Every structure is written in C-alpha cells, then in structure tokens.
TrEMBL record:
Annotated InterPro entries: NAD(P)-bd_dom_sf (IPR036291), Sc_DH/Rdtase_CS (IPR020904), SDR_fam (IPR002347), TR (IPR045000)
A Pfam cross-reference name: adh_short
Protein name, entry field: Tropinone reductase II
Gene3D superfamilies in the record: NAD(P)-binding Rossmann-like Domain
Organism: Solanum stoloniferum
GO molecular function, one term: oxidoreductase activity, acting on the CH-OH group of donors, NAD or NADP as acceptor
Length: 215
C-alpha cells in the first residue's frame, strides 16, 4: 500500500470484468489501497495470469469465472462473493461491458440481447443481489462504469449507448432509493480509454469503412 495516502484497509470490493482494461486498473487501485478485492471474467486463463501478477505485488485479490450474460451464473457468483467476504461488501464496481460495432439497422436480436444482458441487465441484477451485503457493511458503495455514449450520439453504437443511458438513469434512481441504507451510488462516464476492447473497435471501424469504400 502506498505510504501517505488514504487507504481502504479492511474494506471489501467486487469489480466485474477485472481481467483487462478499466476493470484491471480498478482492481489494482483498490488493492493497492489495501482493499480485499474479488473479480470475475469469462476467461479462466486470463484470470489465472492476472491473479499471478496481483499475488506477486502482495495484493489481496481473488477471482472466479462468471458469464455475466447468464442470470443463474450471476446468482451463484454473488453467493460465492458473499461467502468469501462473510456477508459484507463495501464496494461494488459494475464495470463489465461489451460493444458490437454496427449500424443500428444491422443489429440482430442476438446482438441486442447480448449487449443488453451484459451492459445493463447484469449491472442492475448484481446490484440488487449485492444490496443486502452492501447494507450489512453499513457503508456501501456502488459505482457504475458508464460512458459518454450514454449522453452523446456516436456512430455505430446505438445499442451500446442505449445501455449506458439506461445505466445512468438507474444510477440516479438507486442513489435516491438506497441512501436510507447508507449505500452511495455513483456513475463514471469515461470517454475513449486505451483498452483491448477499444483497440478491437478501432480495427472494426477501419475494416468496415474500408469495405464500404470499395463496394
């Protein structure tokens, strides 16, 4: 833990999608401040690599595989986290998300369902499932990682932007409803962040524009 900084010693935190990108950075920051962190990913190999790195730094991080698009897996995952933290959770960071880069007219229902289930439904469901454990900690915090896409119109991100707009409204509603339970609810809406998801999006944009240009 960095000397001279405020710390999170004794706090527990759950960060979804912590094996890469923004989520990885959040896990590292919370752990460096002394928090015990639990995270998840759909990729066991990635998680194992991350856990090895975090262990070498002396961070208190545990993780397990969870497909957040699955309601049943979300339920089992929260049970695992609650048991790991003895029924008390101080921080929940709803970070996991995906983007499928297409024009609005080209999205399939499968695309729509997948983006909605991971970006919005999972964040809402996990927050509700975690509520009793956040309340039990007597100082709970929920953070939604949204996007500027939730408030600005960007090309080829109609469904992604819709999920982030819904997330922003959910943040406001839960902040109002859960204040009585000593649970703070906030949202962060970053712009473009250098991450593997953004890199892949850029590749897709270049490819799509090139194809359209030569049609």
């Amino acid at each position: 833990m960095a000397a001279g900084r405020w710390n999170l010693e004794g706090c527990t935190a759950l960060v979804t999608g912590g094996s890469r990108g923004i989520g990885y950075g959040i896990v590292e920051e919370l752990a460096s401040l002394g928090a015990s962190v639990y995270t998840c990913s759909r990729n066991q190999k990635e998680l194992n690599e991350c856990l090895t790195q975090w262990s070498s730094k002396g961070f208190k991080v545990e993780a397990s595989v969870c497909d957040l698009s699955s309601r049943s897996e979300r339920q089992e995952f929260i049970k695992t986290v609650a048991n790991h933290f003895d029924g008390k959770l101080n921080i929940l960071v709803n970070n996991a998300g995906i983007v499928i880069y297409k024009e609005a007219k080209d999205y399939t229902m499968e695309d729509y369902s997948l983006i909605m289930s991971i970006n919005f439904e999972a964040a809402y469901h996990l927050s509700v499932l975690a509520h009793p454990f956040l309340k039990a900690s007597q100082r709970g915090n929920v953070v939604f990682i949204s996007s500027i896409s939730g408030a600005s119109a960007l090309p080829y991100e109609a469904v992604y932007g819709a999920t982030k707009g819904a997330m922003d409204q959910l943040t406001r509603c839960l902040a109002f409803e859960w204040a009585k339970d000593n649970i703070r609810v906030n949202g962060v809406a970053p712009g473009v962040i250098a991450s593997s998801m953004v890199e892949m999006t850029i590749v897709n944009i270049v490819f799509t524009v090139s194809v359209e240009h030569f049609k």
